[in-house]
Amino acid sequence: MDAFPQTMYFTGLNAPVGEEVSLTGLAVEGTLPPEVRGSFYRAVPDPAFPPKFANDHTLSGDGMVSRLSFNGDGTADYAIRFVETARHLAEKAAGRARFGKYRNPYTDDADVAGVDRTVANTTPVWHAGRLLMAKEDGRPYRVDPVTLDTLGSYDFGGALKSETMTAHVRIDPVTKELFFYGYEADGLASTKVAYCVVGPDGALKSEQWFDAPYCAMMHDFTISENYALFPIYPTTADLERLKAGGEHWHHEPETVSWLGVMPRYGDVPEIRWFKGPKGVHSYHMMNAWEDADGLLHFDACLNSTNAFAFIREPSGIHIQPWEMQGALTRWTVDPKADGGPETLAVKETVIGPPGDFPVIPAVRQGRPYPHGWMLTMNPELQGPPLPGGPVGAMFNLLLRLDMRGGPPQALALPPLSGFNEPVHVPSATEGHEGWLVTIVDQQIGDDRFLHQAWVLDAANVAAGPVAKVTIPHRLRPQVHGWWVPQAELDAASA
C-alpha cells in the first residue's frame, strides 16, 4: 500500500509515529517515592511502512522499545527506538513493506523468504542482567538497556533449539529462575511446544518438547511453586490455510479448551490434561498457586471468545466487543487426581470482573497472593472510551482486587482517556504494597493527545497519582512493560 489504511488500527491514538527520540530532564509533578528509581521499559508496535494488505492490524507493527527512567535528581528521561530486527532491516533497505499477513510467510515478497520475520513487539523481558524484546512467533532480540541499541537475535548462546519463545515468561521469586515455553516450536501450525528453564545466571538449564492437544495460540502461561501450567484455548492455526494465503488464526467456538499441568522440574511425559469449557479464550493469567490441600488454582482473564476482531471475523464470529462475556476466572484442579484427559476437568469459579492486564507483586509469583490489579471498562462512564489499542478501545478503570474477599478499589478516568498496562514497583517499607507505574493517554483535541506517566500507591489506587511525568512527544499504545530497579541496571553495567 502507498499509505496506511484508514482503519481503527492506524488512526487516532493508533496512528503510526515511527520516530526515535531521546528526551532528558523531564519534570516530575508531585512527590516521587524513593523506591521508584529505575527504568520502565515498554514494547510498542509501530509500523515503519504502510502494510502490504489493507486488513493488517496493530500487532504486525515493528517493535519499538521505550524507556522511561526516573533519576536520582527527581527528573525523568524518555527514549524510544526501533528494535533492529532482520525484518525491520530488510524493509528499511527497500523503503517499503515486504512481509505480508500476520504470521503468514506465504504472503511475503519472494526475496525475503527465510528472513526472520518476528517484529519483537510484545514484551520487554529482564533477567540475569539482559533485556530481551520478545514476541511469541520467534526468538527474542537482545537490547542494550541503556542505549536501547539492538544487539541481535538471542538464543541463549546457541542452546535454545525452539524456533520460538513466548513473550510471557515467569520468574520464580526465590530461585530467580526464568521459566518459558515456545509454541509452534518447530514451524508453522505445529503442535510442538518447548518448555524451558533458565538459571539465575541466564544459562538455559533444560529444554523439553511435548505435543499440545492441537496447535493453539498459547499467549501466556503460569507457574506455581511446584508446577508449570499450560492453557490451551481454541484459537487455532492450519498449515493448508496459511499456504492458501489465509489468516494464521481462526477461533473455533465448538472446540474444548485444556489445561496442561506438569511438575515444573519434571519430565514432559508427566503432563496431565484437564478439560475446560468450549470456545473460551484468555490472553493473560494473573497467577497460579497451590493451597494447603494440594489443589492447584489458575486465575485468568477469561472471555467467551477471542478478544481480537481480526481473529473473530475471519472465523465467522461477528459480534460487537461489548457482546463478549468475560470475568477473572479461577480454574481449580487436583494435580494428583486419578483419571485421564476424558475424565479430568477443571472446576470453574468467577473471582473478579471482566478485564485484562492483570498484575501481582513479583514476590507472589506462583504463591497465594492477597491482592492484585487489573484494567477494565468503567460501567458508569458518561462518555466515550478512548479509541486505540489492538481491540479498538483503551481500558479506563484501574482496579485493586482483594483476593481475600474484601471490597475492590477503583480509579476511573474521564471520557476519552485510557490506561496502558501498569507495572508494579516493590516498596522498601514492610507491609506497604508498593507502587504502580502506568502511562495514561488522553485525547485533548482532533488527533491531539496528552501522554503522562502516573505513579500510584498500589494500596490506595483510588486516591489517584502521587506523581506524574508529562511526556512531550506523541506515543502509541504499548503491549506490555517491565520495571527494572536502578540497582539492577547498575549491577548489569558493572
TrEMBL record:
Keywords in alphabetical order: Dioxygenase, Iron, Metal-binding, Oxidoreductase
Pfam families according to UniProt: RPE65
Positions of Fe cation binding: 168, 219, 284, 480
Entry-linked InterPro entries: Carotenoid_Oase (IPR004294)
One of the GO biological process terms: carotene catabolic process
EC numbers, comma separated: 1.13.11.-
Keyword Metal-binding applies: yes
GO molecular function per UniProt: carotenoid dioxygenase activity; metal ion binding
Cofactor(s) listed: Fe(2+)
Enzyme class: oxidoreductase
Cofactor binding remark: Binds 1 Fe(2+) ion per subunit.
Family from the record: Belongs to the carotenoid oxygenase family.
Protein name in UniProt: Dioxygenase
Source species of the chain: Novosphingobium fuchskuhlense
Lineage of the species this protein comes from: Bacteria, Pseudomonadati, Pseudomonadota, Alphaproteobacteria, Sphingomonadales
